[in-house]
Design a protein that fits this description.
By secondary structure, this protein is an alpha/beta fold. 47% of the residues lie in helices and 19% in strands. It has five helices and five strands. It has a five-stranded parallel β-sheet, sandwiched between helices. Helix 2 runs parallel beside helix 3. Bound molecules: manganese (II) ion (MN).
């Protein structure tokens, strides 16, 4: 079963999303800030990372930049979540290396669709 790392500082959102993903059959690891997120991306080797963009310690844009600059984590797809659904945020997320983007409040079925697409795509692309 694919493993998802969820990086979200809002405890209620984190617990809710994590429970719903587990119910779908995913293994879920969670982190509450960007620094912990980077550490866990390395230690947990998840198949996909879902990260909030507004995070304490290191924000989601910088988390993504660092993961994509690291050979051990750059192959992991990153799906960014943000309440600021401005085109500018989307742009910054894509420039930082995010593979996809979704807006908060999370619409779970839409998120699942994006998760599924990213996991499929990863299987098609050999790791570099
Ligand atoms: Mn946040």
């Amino acid at each position: 079963m694919p493993k998802i790392l969820l990086v979200e500082d809002n405890e209620m959102n984190r617990d809710m999303l994590s429970r719903r993903l587990v119910r779908q059959g995913f293994a879920v690891a969670t982190a509450a800030d960007g620094q912990e997120g980077i550490r866990m991306a390395r230690s947990e080797a998840p198949d996909l990372i879902v990260t909030d963009l507004s995070l304490p310690v290191i924000d989601g844009w910088e988390v993504t930049r660092r993961l994509k600059a690291d050979n051990s984590t750059r192959h992991i797809p990153v799906l960014a979540l943000s309440a600021h659904a401005m085109p500018e945020d989307l742009n910054r997320a894509m420039l930082a290396g995010c593979d996809d983007f979704d807006t908060k409040p999370v619409q779970f079925s839409r998120l699942l669709e994006k998760v599924g697409m990213l996991l499929e795509r990863k299987c098609d692309v050999p790791k570099t």
